[in-house]
Structure formats: structure tokens, C-alpha cells
Design a protein that fits this description.
single chain, mainly beta, 9-stranded mixed β-sheet, 4 helices, 53 strands
């Protein structure tokens, strides 16, 4: 299993289009063949893998005293000893015995499997399970495994999960009593979980008990307060009288963990393989990128993210929030991820500043105030020495670039105004003509690409695949029952504070199956490419500049979409070909939605909609192909619309 001498499997370093430079081509109309020639998808790659030579050292975990018979506290102390002994070393093989179960208690400030500056690290789980108990003290931003600045790493054949009996992470309750006079009710827990006094429920979703899936947002009552009254009952106070549907509803309660840990955190690594790892009940994310440092080459393969036991309906708060310039996510199985399954970026690359750019009195010509920022995003891109570029309100670059010389955050914590501000000083004067609604984005010049293929994603509450990187292939995935649009590749400013993507270019989305998606009636379509401003309450609007370019959407099957099945706007060079759209628009279009019809394309150029098929049933509320404000759009061979 562990070989002798380091071996290069395959690694390529090809110069692909710069992600920060939009691939805007000539304004002359292009033919289908000309557009096809510009959509190649990503170049293939693999990773360098560690292999043992005479200098490699094997560390069996039982030699340190890790044992299934230990108390959880004892195993926590042993893991700290293991990390202290091997972190920073090269040529390390950490081996677990076959099929053992270790229970570990999280203790604030005590390291778990933390590896820094470790090269050629091989963690062989041999089918063993690490089951972590929640901590007694608040602890967040940590992980069961944390890798920082490590190269050539393998983690495989291991199960990482939570001790559900010690503290569950979620519960499904059925409303079994309701007093309309006092607006109080009692939810009886019908899932495999016991609740205790002191538990808090930071996230609540409506739940279809028969389908075991999130239901429409309007079925969720508005809660004023919660109170645990027994191990199987939660008393609630409602803000307003319940509708008939809400009186007969089920609710999915997320339970706040004391230690909000990820399973694996990656920061500034290169050549990492995570293979055949089973994530079973994770308080926060399964695999997360941190500190805005990308993992150069990352493969997550043959892994699963599933609940720790049947009848629990929780696998993780979020799935795979990764930062990697070269990324593969293949042959994985995910069920009951509470938030987005895949939220991917290219490390420092791909972020921009939303909010507003203001020139307050007393500032020098080199200074601006970036207002209405979400701090935990903005702090990763506002860095000394960071290069930034300016674009107008349509995300069109205006030709100004500069470097950040200094910055100072002004954090505000008012319930009525949770926005944050940052004073930024640039090397060069900021353009006096710049408007407040312009945006700044990080300059990036890199090769890179991603593959997301042959995965199965079921019963997840938000997006399945959500990204904005260039050079991608999303292929042969099955996505069944998810709360939000299943696949979104976009450059968007969300809610004036969140930001996604940076000029996605050269992306292929093909042969995917999307079944019963977007059940929470979110904008704009079950499969969407494009960009613009998602204002949360007033709708998602396209911009006049083509922020997403050179995209092929081909051979996908989208069945029982709650709203539009397939859509695009603010694109250039787009082929939508041979897709099958069955029973779309199951529910009436939301009043603030711009994603109408079965298939829509808006504000785009060089668009080819060819040989697509639609099949409707009596419940389809929106039909047809919507073609609005497009240039050089060609429709042919489409049937059933």
C-alpha cells in the first residue's frame, strides 16, 4: 500500500485564460462553430502523491496510546501528543489499525490532528472511525484535521463523525398542539434525537416528513422564541397566527454545537488527496478552505457526507467550501447537507467588494471607505499589498488598478445596522469619477481548472453546486431534491454584502440529472449561469455586461423544477443544446422573480438554443423559451415548448 520513492502521478501546469480578465471577444456576431472552438473545458491534472522511501517513518496511533477503551478525554490528549510529535516532519505515515472506533472529547484550545509544514504525509485510516463529542466550552473555527502549508498529503479510508448520543446536531419536530389565543405550540420530536434544556436552535427550516426534504419557505412559521420542555418536546411562541398548512407542518431544527468544528480545514497546501473518507455528522463544514490561502491541487474522491445514523437528517451544516486553483470532486455521495453542498472558489482569487465605495470628507485622494461589508468575507481580500481593480456597476472593468498600502476596519454592531466599514489607502489616487456603486475586485493571474463529476447529491437544503471559477467541467452528476437551484455558475453581488465568482469563462455543464430541485422557490432557475445583483427581497437582476463567457450547457435532464428549469443572463458565447426539461415550473412564479418561462436567456450575446425538449403537465405554471434583450440569438430544433 505504501510504496518506496516519490512518484509523480501526473501534474500539468498549463497557461489558461486569466480569471480576472473577462474573455470578451470581438463584438462581431459569432457562428456556432466559432463559439464551440472557444469552449474547451479544463485541462486534466492529477496530484503528486507521497510515497515512502527509506527515510519515511511509520507512526501507528496505538503506539501513542490511542485506544477504543480510553475515555474520550484520554483520546483527546493522545491526539494532541500525536500532532505534537509529527507536525512539521516530512515523510510521515500515520496508520490506524483496521476497523476500530475511537471516541474523542473536544476541549477548547487543545489541538486535534493539526499538521503544519508537513510534507509527504500519508494518513491511512484502514476503515477506523473517529467519533467526536461536542465540547463543554465555546470553540469555533477549528477542525478535527487541520493542514497548513503542507505538500503531498493523502487522507484516506477513514470515518470522521460526531457522537450523536452525546449531543445531536438536528431534530425534526411535528406540531402536535397549538393554542391560537396565546400563539403557542409544542413540537414533538419525531426524528432520532433528544433535546435538552439550554439547547439553542440557530437555523430552522420547514420539512416534508413524507419526502424527507425541505418544503416551501411559506410553510415555515415565524417563531418568537423556543423552550425545551422535555427530551422530546420544544415549546414555541409564534409571532402571528398560523395558516392551515403551518398547523399541520413539520420543522427541521438545527441544534447549536458548543464546538463548531469542521472535519478538515485546508490552508495554503499543495497536492492533497482526500479519498474514501466518510463524513458522518459534522458541526460545521466537511472540508473547508481557510485564511484565504488556496490548496494548489486538490482531489476529493470516493467520499461520502451522510447522517451519522438513519432518521437523523443531518450530515453537516455545509459541505465542501474549498479554495483551490486545481480541483477535482469526483464519485462522491452527499445526503442531508443543511447549507450549500459545494461552494468553491480559487483561494485569494474570485472575491470582490460589494456594498458601497464612499469618499468621506477628510480623506486623501488615495483613500476610500468601503461600506456595508460582511466582515468575515471582506477581511480575506482587504490585505496590505493586495492588488485590486475597479469595475463599474455592471461589473465592467474601467481600467484602474492599484495596490492596498494600508487599511482599517470600523466594525459596527447595531441590531438595526449590522454593516461594517473599512478605510482603505491605495498606492495610487482613486478615480474621482468613480461612483459609489462601483466594485473592487482582487487582481488575479493564474492557471487552474475544476472537475465536478459523477457525484450523487440528495436531500440537501440549499444549493448543490455553487461557484464562479473559470475553466470548469460539471458532468454526470445526479442531484435529487435540493432546496435551492441545483447548479449555479455566476458572478454576483448578493444582498449587498456577499460576493460570488469572478468572470467565469470556459465552462461545460453536461449530462447532469436534476430531479425535484429548487423546492424553496429561489431565483432564478434550477440550472443557471450568468451574474448580476441578487438583492434578496427585491429580486435577482442581470447586468448589461457579459460577466460569464464561453459556456456549453448540453444533454442535461431537469425534471420537476419548482420554477424555471434552465436560465442564463449577462452571458456571451453560450450554447444550450440537447437538454430535456420535464414538468418545470411546478409552482407559480414568485412576484420578484426575473427567471420566467421554462428556459430563459436575457441580456446575452451569441446564444445558440438548439434541439432542447420540453414536456409539461397540468401543473406547469410557466411555459416556453423566453428571449429578452439578446444579440445574435439563434433557436432551432427545439420541441415541446
Amino acid at each position: 500500500m505504501i510504496l518506496r520513492s516519490f512518484r509523480k502521478i501526473l501534474a500539468v501546469s498549463l497557461l489558461l485564460p486569466s480569471l480576472h480578465s473577462p474573455a470578451q471577444v470581438t463584438s462581431a456576431p459569432l457562428s456556432l462553430s466559432q463559439v464551440e472552438s472557444q469552449i474547451a473545458g479544463p485541462e486534466d491534472f492529477d496530484v503528486y502523491l507521497p510515497e515512502a522511501d527509506a527515510n519515511c517513518v511509520t507512526y501507528p496511533v496505538e503506539n501513542f496510546g490511542l485506544s477504543p477503551s480510553n475515555t474520550p478525554e484520554q483520546n483527546a490528549a493522545v491526539i494532541a501528543d500525536i500532532a505534537n510529535a509529527i507536525s512539521g516532519k516530512s515523510g510521515v505515515i500515520l496508520v490506524f489499525p483496521a476497523n476500530k472506533v475511537y471516541t474523542v472529547k473536544i476541549k477548547k484550545g487543545q489541538p486535534l490532528f493539526v499538521f503544519t509544514n508537513s510534507n509527504d504525509l500519508y494518513v491511512s485510516g484502514n476503515g477506523s472511525r473517529l467519533i467526536f463529542q461536542d465540547g463543554d466550552e465555546a470553540d469555533s473555527g477549528n477542525a478535527y484535521f487541520k493542514l497548513t502549508h503542507c505538500n503531498r498529503v493523502v487522507i484516506k479510508d477513514l470515518t470522521i463523525g460526531c457522537d450523536w448520543e452525546y449531543k445531536p446536531l438536528a431534530a425534526v419536530g411535528q406540531l402536535t398542539s397549538y393554542n391560537e389565543a396565546t400563539l403557542t405550540g409544542v413540537y414533538t420530536i419525531v426524528s432520532d434525537a433528544s433535546v435538552r434544556e439550554g439547547y439553542t436552535f440557530p437555523y430552522v427550516k420547514s420539512f416534508d416528513w413524507d419526502a424527507k426534504m425541505r418544503t416551501l419557505d411559506e410553510y415555515l412559521p415565524s417563531f418568537k422564541s423556543y423552550k425545551v420542555i422535555s427530551d422530546k418536546q420544544i415549546e414555541t411562541v409564534f409571532r402571528s397566527p398560523l395558516t392551515t398548512e403551518q398547523k399541520n407542518s413539520y420543522v427541521h431544527f438545527a441544534i447549536q454545537p458548543t464546538a463548531k468544528h469542521c472535519a478538515i480545514i485546508l490552508s495554503g497546501n499543495d497536492h492533497v488527496l482526500i479519498e474514501n473518507v466518510k463524513f458522518m455528522g459534522i458541526p460545521f463544514m466537511a472540508v473547508a478552505g481557510r485564511d484565504n490561502e488556496a490548496t494548489g491541487h486538490l482531489i476529493i474522491r470516493n467520499c461520502s457526507l451522510v447522517p451519522p445514523k438513519p432518521n437523523t437528517y443531518w450530515a453537516a451544516l455545509e459541505g465542501f467550501d474549498v479554495k483551490s486553483s486545481w480541483y477535482k470532486f469526483e464519485d462522491n455521495n452527499i445526503e442531508y447537507c443543511y447549507d450549500d453542498v459545494m461552494n468553491f472558489e480559487a483561494g485569494k482569487l474570485g472575491y470582490f467588494l460589494g456594498g458601497s465605495l464612499d469618499r468621506d470628507e477628510g480623506l486623501t485622494s488615495n483613500q476610500i471607505i468601503a461600506d456595508s461589508l460582511q466582515y468575515y468575507y471582506a477581511r480575506n481580500i482587504i490585505l496590505k499589498g493586495a492588488e485590486m481593480e475597479l469595475a463599474d456597476e455592471n461589473f465592467k472593468p474601467v481600467g484602474w488598478k492599484s495596490t492596498i498600502e494600508s487599511f482599517k476596519f470600523q466594525l459596527q454592531y447595531y441590531p438595526t445596522d449590522p454593516a461594517h466599514r473599512c478605510l482603505i489607502t491605495f498606492k495610487d489616487p482613486f478615480p474621482a469619477s468613480a461612483q459609489s456603486n462601483y466594485i473592487l475586485y482582487t487582481i488575479q493571474s493564474t492557471d487552474g481548472g475544476y472537475f465536478i463529476r459523477n457525484n450523487t447529491i440528495r436531500n440537501c437544503f440549499h444549493h448543490a453546486i455553487w461557484g464562479g471559477n473559470a475553466n470548469g467541467l460539471i458532468e454526470n452528476n445526479t442531484i435529487e431534491q435540493c432546496g435551492y437551484p441545483a447548479i449555479m455558475i455566476q458572478m454576483a453581488s448578493r444582498w449587498s454584502k456577499w460576493f460570488k465568482g469572478l468572470y467565469p469563462n470556459n465552462v461545460i455543464i453536461r449530462s447532469n440529472k436534476l430531479l425535484r430541485t429548487n423546492m424553496a422557490l429561489r431565483q432564478p432557475a434550477s440550472l443557471f449561469v450568468g451574474g448580476g445583483y441578487d438583492t434578496q427581497y427585491n429580486g435577482y437582476f442581470p447586468v448589461d455586461y457579459a460577466v460569464t463567457t464561453n459556456v456549453l450547457i448540453e444533454g442535461n435532464t431537469i425534471e420537476n423544477a419548482s420554477q424555471a428549469a434552465l436560465g442564463a443572463w449577462s452571458c456571451k458565447n453560450l450554447i444550450i443544446r440537447g437538454n430535456t426539461l420535464i414538468n418545470p415550473s411546478l409552482y407559480p412564479l414568485k412576484s420578484n422573480s426575473n427567471g420566467n418561462g421554462t428556459l430563459f436567456v436575457k441580456k446575452s450575446e451569441n446564444v445558440f438554443i438548439i434541439n432542447n425538449t420540453a414536456q409539461y403537465n397540468a401543473t406547469s405554471s410557466q411555459k416556453g423559451i423566453v428571449n429578452e434583450n439578446n444579440t445574435n440569438i439563434q433557436l432551432s430544433g427545439n420541441t415541446g415548448f
